[in-house]
Inverse folding.
């Protein structure tokens, strides 16, 4: 059963409309045709994305002034255009045929807090691996600087783990690129089976601890939501 699309969502807290706009704007820099899955329930909005090339899930949540129920996949660009920061609200655009990942999300419950991370350490690590990637790709001879070779360098770097954790650096990179690592607020790490969640005050990034996020049909074991 398809849930109805409410005409407008009103945020309960100031600044949430701007936060959503910033999130979508960064997402669209990586993929102009990006789609997001929007879920509302219990007075909470959840916006799920899978940033191109990161192979992780990014999640932004916000409290709503009124409780509504909906679950739709929409164009990230159209959603961005419909945000009214002055009114702290957003009109949801029409549903689109979403990418395959939108049908299978990480688990809603069962998350266990496994530790806290120092914001400065995580930000420094993100900056260092981005710098390493740029340095290594720039040093490639021009004839070897192919998309395949650049991707191989990226995969080697992003598949490493954050020191002392099982969190792949692709999750740290995504959190950095999406603006989730700004400020000095504490960062927390959660797990749920093979999934790891880096939670920040600005959003979360979820990845598998043992490998990149598989595509639907390739052994994904989460429950559709």
């Amino acid at each position: 059963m398809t849930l109805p699309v409410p005409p407008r969502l009103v945020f309960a807290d100031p600044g949430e409309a701007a936060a959503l706009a910033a999130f979508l704007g960064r997402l669209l820099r990586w993929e102009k045709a990006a789609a997001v899955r929007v879920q509302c329930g219990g007075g909470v909005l959840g916006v799920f994305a899978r940033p191109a090339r990161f192979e992780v899930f990014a999640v932004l949540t916000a409290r709503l002034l009124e409780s509504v129920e909906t679950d739709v996949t929409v164009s990230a660009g159209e959603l961005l255009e419909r945000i009214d920061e002055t009114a702290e609200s957003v009109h949801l655009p029409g549903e689109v045929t979403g990418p395959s990942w939108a049908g299978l999300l990480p688990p809603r419950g069962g998350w266990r807090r496994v530790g806290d991370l120092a914001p400065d350490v995580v930000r420094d690590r993100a900056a260092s691996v981005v710098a390493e990637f740029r340095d290594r790709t720039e040093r490639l001879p021009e004839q070897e600087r192919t998309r395949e070779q650049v991707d191989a360098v990226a995969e080697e770097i992003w598949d490493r783990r954050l020191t002392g954790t099982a969190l792949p650096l692709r999750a740290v990179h995504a959190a950095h690129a999406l603006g989730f690592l700004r400020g000095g607020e504490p960062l927390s790490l959660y797990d749920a089976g093979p999934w790891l969640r880096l939670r920040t005050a600005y959003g979360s990034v979820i990845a598998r601890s043992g490998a990149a996020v598989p595509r639907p049909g390739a052994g994904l074991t989460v429950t559709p939501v």
Observations:
- The longest strand covers residues 35-41.
- The two ends are 13 Å apart (CA to CA).
- Residues 211-225 have pLDDT under 50 and may be disordered.
